[in-house]
Amino acid sequence: MTAYTCDPLYDYPRDFSGYGEAGLDPKWPNKAKIAVSFVINYEEGGERSVMSGDGMAEQNLRENPAGPPRINERNLNVESEYEYGSRAGFWRMFRMFNEYKMKFTLYAVAQAVEKQPEVARRCVEMGHDVASHAYRWIEYHDFSIEKEKEYIKKGIESLKGLTGYAPRGWYYGRNSPHSRTLVPQVYEEMGEELVWASDTYADDVPYWIDLPTEASKSDEEAKGCLMVPYSYDCNDFKFHVIGSGFADPDGFFAHLKNAFDVLYEEGENGMPKMMTVGLHCRIAGRPGRFGALKQFVEYISKKEGVWVATRTEIAEAFKKEYPYKRGKLA
Asked: Which sequence spans correspond to the domains of the chain?
């Protein structure tokens, strides 16, 4: 086995301390006790497909995971599962969040939204946040640096053309060892602003990181990168994780409610947090699971001091209270 070698341009120190025992009060607007971020992952049309030159259909996050992958052959069952998400599941969740006047963040795979631009248009019209979930929903681990930069640029340009603005936030999910450096680097090269990134699961509140590409800049010139942690536990993808996922919608609701109640109580005790709920059009958009999601939305809508916000709103509120300082989380 080859020993790991550190490339200072793409290497980040691990942090096991975070905000420590004292924690951090993010000082949410209007003294909110908790910030809740609903995220809809829009991947349908950007997944692996023989028609996109991938040589196989998508194998991940599908209802029926059985059977070997079909090489150089379309899998119409898989394709139709994903199409359900864009045709029905997304709109079911979209209507509900609008009904409750709650803003969500769309993790938009650019190639997917290109196939259904109405999704981006309606999100913008209703005030929801369209962030980038990369140009395609594929594995980027083995991409060369130049190829990944090309895809990052395509993702930014595509969403800007569809929404009228460059995506203010970025989440890969299938990132490479270089992604944390490359995404803010490409934004800077394009003259666009990256407000936040979410390929981290390390905390319950945002935090700043230093960028290796800014090592030679002065403290005043350096911008850093604000990390807004995502969630794998409060996430409907666990319906498709055999053995350790949600067995039924009741389990999904119970988990969301437990997480909310714990964080809400911490907020009541003077230490507010943020909670992220990860959703997928073809998963939580299915009627049986959607009922549990709606039950949770209704539950938190009756609580006082709950701030349901987009990830950009959360990032901007945090930045206002805790602007970037080199070497500091906040």
From this structure: 29-321
- What CATH number should be reported for the domain whose range is 29-321? 3.20.20.370
- What is the per-residue pLDDT for 179? 96
| CA–CA dist 178, 188 (Å, integer) | 16
Query: What is d(CA 17, CA 57) in angstroms, rounded to the nearest whole number?
Result: 42
User: DSSP secondary structure string, 24-79?
Assistant: -----GGG-SEEEEEEEEE-TTTS--GGGT-SB---SS-S---S---BTS--HHHH
Q: What angle do CA 129, 307, 210 make, to 5 degrees?
A: 65
Q: How far apart are CA 83 and CA 44, in angstroms?
A: 6
pLDDT digits (tens, 9 = 90+) for 64-118: 776 777 788 888 788 889 899 999 999 999 999 999 999 999 999 999 999 999 9
pLDDT band at 54 (very low <50, low <70, confident <90, very high): low
